[in-house]
Model the fold of this input.
Amino acid sequence: MNEPNQVQKQVDAVYRSESRRVFATLIRLLGDFELAEEALHEAFAVAIEQWPRDGTPANPRAWLVSVGRFRAIDTIRRRTRFDASLAELAERINTAEPDVKADEDVEDDRLRLIFTCCHPSLPQEAQVALTLREVCGLKTEEIASAFLVAPPTLAQRIVRAKAKIRAAGIPYQVPSMEDLPDRLDTVLQVIYLVFNEGYAASSGPSLTRADLSGEAIRLGRLVMELLPNPEVLGLLALMLLQESRRAARTSPQGDLILLADQDRSLWNQAQIAEGRSLVEQALSSQQVGPYSIQAAIAAVHSSAPTPAATDWAQIVGLYSLLVQIEPSPVVQLNRAVAVAMRDGPQAGLQLLDQILAEGGLADYHLAHAARADLCRRLGETAEAKASYQRALELVKQEPERRFLEGRLRELV
Done:
């Protein structure tokens, strides 16, 4: 017989490492999110009761799936007293082959779950919430806090998403090879949305949310292990290279520090090395996509020992390629800033004013902040003040607001 405290620690450790895998397999077997969640918790409750007496099983994951499955069958059979149609479901689950012995089968279940949560028929905000809740295991309150949404509102998004999955018969499966490229794009978009909210929060008192960017990187690693597509490698590389600068991006007081002013000795060299290696793998595939190009740009920045040593010509070239592959006003803005660094602020300002004249970034505070900086460097103080004021009207994040106010005070 094991000591209760020791067994409790073992159960907790198994929960942290295996619960989402067990949950993914239970969804495959039971075909229902809520029933699988209930079965998961019941299985761990039985583990806490039995493992001190009988010992920890050799394969805890398979044991938990088996117990959860049988508990779900019992639950369904109890409900057949009120709904006879559930009897057939209970029999189907009872005769289904659990098949949880091979790791690759379990990981396939996790991949199925990711694609289900990121199904394109679901609204994007629901995809993000469902992925963080069901794949990562974050609590509803944690997700709501990260995205500055009331917990009941976030909970309703998840409930509606699950209801739509049931009502629309969204399949719990990895898409066919024919559908995979489009569906994978959706999965990568969701992961990058989560990362961006962690890397640069859209609003609120803090510049970053390390927990969210950490979850996004964990998701990226999971998808890479299950589906090592070049763009998956590119996205993971991009996230690692951007995350490597976290410690240098803010002062101890939480104030924003621009890339050019960062203490590069604080950059995480392990993340940079891994990111660069992934970039090389992604680019060597000859299947270059937007995440791989963005990762290549981040790799150029990471290789510069000082701001002055940055290869801006290479960065402009990469942004020019990115504009061709994924034309968007934000990409054009980033290219204009790079051109300003290569050819001088006047060249960058000319491009930026063209972009703003087209109207796509009229309400984007970073576009006006970039314009203000270029005007400041050119000595056009009145223009710089006006652009800083416009950026301040639009900004929602406190560290960025303080930074812009500081720049404006310098001009005054």
Notes: Confidence is low (pLDDT under 50) at residues 100-106. The longest helix spans residues 4-30. The radius of gyration is 25 Å.
